[in-house]
Amino acid sequence: MGTSIQRHPEPAYSVRRMLSVPLYYNKDHPEVYVSKKPWLIQRGAVKIPASSLSSTVLRTAVDMDILEAREWCLQNTQCVAFSFPLQSERSLKLVDQVVFVSKIAGFEYGGDDSYMKRHHEDEEPAPDYVPTHEPDPEWVTHIVHDRARLTNRLERNIDISEGKWAPHAKSPYRPCCTANATLPSIEELQAVDNLKRISCNISRAEFYELYEKPRIPVMLLGCTDDWPAKEKWKDIPTLLERFDNDTHWESISQREMKWGEFKEFYKEAHEKKLGIRIFQKLNPGFPADILKQDYKIPLPFRGSDFYEKLPHFAKHHFPKDFGPLHYWIVGSYATGTGPHADPLTTDAWSTLVSGHKWWIIYPKVKHVLSEVETQCHRACSTSMTDFHVTGKRDEVSWYASVAKHANKFHYGNDQHAYFVLQNPGETIFLPFGMIHSVMNMDETIAITEKVASEANFEEVWREILVSGEEEDWPHMYYKILTKEQREMARRVLWPITREGVESLVSNEAMYVGSKNTGNYADEEEEEEEDGPTILSDEEFQALSDEDKADYMAYREDYDKRRREREGEEGDEDPVVLDETEFADLSNEEKLEYREYCESFGDGWQSVMPYVAEYFGVDIPLESR
Question: How far is 479 from 482, CA to CA, in rounded Å?
């Protein structure tokens, strides 16, 4: 029997499961985690005792990329792992040093790990905690997951619990930010860009099948070829004369101002090299709305927003009164965002008209990678990055210290971070759930829209339940969804009740790390609830027997809740229609009339037996 790295009883600050190197599985040892991954990635460097240095270290290489290191280790049968420092000032792609080893005695983590040991009961580091010195380089080890090769190459029962760098940490990459690191140049970023490029002249159907459905980010070329924006948005000075000085803008560097004030602000900021950032929502009727005349939605994204099928989207958008998820973005050098997930379960397309943007895109790993997993970790950072990056030294530290090394971030099943330089005229597609950050590498002007994709149906449906209005889901379920989509909707939640929706874990909680946010509507403002979704006779008959039963249960549940809201006791009588009047109603009106009658309780069936007979409703014995 071989040896293994086991998960000892974990201290209070550790989470449920640690990465391990298993050689066998024994039902009597549930602490042994068996993985099917070809490579296991562990935070820290392999511990090499001085007494066994010559027999442990097979080779030390310099300026090697990770794939080359993996290839060398696989070809050398004595190699079980290799360790390397994440930070490298010589290259964005290569690592400064790679140490190949023939056995593993444990791991060394370096840095200021003593903080977590001293305060292991704290959920997060204290807000006022600052490391007393620059953190040591972060090392990572890739281990060949070959049981035969690992046999007798591991110390028994290696405890790796200290490798957890924070209570929430589920990846081996501790993000330590320091203000002393330097930003890369546009030329350096261009050399390591690893995102695929395709032509924008691709049909909506083909794009959906090749990229949107499999959830693959991609860059499109040529979308702006016929846009007036190519000239009108060619630089910020050209834009300054586009609008009247008295027009009001909501989101210029996180504050409101008139356009004339922005002109003065831009002049001062340009002279003093201050950060400038406009993130303007294109609300209908707003002065910025005229910008829509300068561009067209790229062909692959036209008609792609699933939220447009919601019953009140044209009037209220989604969530109600949130406004359009359509933004015009202007920024200066070293401004942008910290790592984040886009809101409301939306994919995004973003076209850069002028300038250059640097994107870091993490792979989508649900329950593992979130915003809090990728942001500066206080226990090892001498400077912190907020969501809005306005060009200040502390705010760009994440890019200079963490993002610059993202090419070296590999995750389970060989997923990796994307390292992207977006050039003028390029349009990026970003599926929902991929944590990302964007920095302007010079003055930039861009347009972006966030849309819900049917390719991501289950997560979109969850968002509709959590953030939508109460009438949204029945309208979509009974009138819009296909049979296959209704089956997927059931996997999210069924039956759908108010209590069930309130208990759902939101998508935001999965990727952002926050609690369920519930409905975006103002909770203090109580509005009259709309009526239930009414199906025509044709729509009702098109349902399966199971869906018909579900629809009737939904209507009955709605009627019950309506009676509870209105305090109806069934002691009043509905307005009675005679048989001729009822026959003159349309199918939809007949259904509405039945709903109206049922809100008064039982008894109407005997007064209007022709209505009960039409719907196949039994007449209660006590009413006969």
Answer: 9
